[in-house]
Amino acid sequence: MPLGRYRYVCCCGSYREFTKFNSFTGRTTLAVVHTHLFVLGVLLFLILALFVNINPDLLKDSRAKKFYILQNLSLILFTATLLARGIIQVLNIQLSSAENSSISGIAGVSHILLTISLLLFFLLLKQYAVNRNE
After folding, report:
1. Which of 30, 48, 53, 101 is the right S-S partner for 86, CB 3.0 to 4.6 Å?
2. Beta carbons of 86 and 33 less than 8 angstroms apart
């Protein structure tokens, strides 16, 4: 397989163009990457910004820093597994059982880490909401 296809994925990044370029017509996880990044990477931090606007001390909390680091690292890992799975689907790469399980395992770990970061986020917001009402 020519190296140009991989450069195309990296440079263009558009799943529609990538699937069209490879004459792929089925469903792929590449279709949901944008939505996941938008919700987990943008909307979540916009919500945080609204709460910081009300209470600027929120960012000084050590849990806020832990949330920020864990959210970003797990989101990168999560996105990488979505992209890997989608590219494998489009290019019809045959994986061994171990390789397939490895990707699923990494995706599972990233989901667990995202869940922990969301729990930290909600606990942080709850604490500051309770403190504000007192």
Report:
1. 30
2. yes
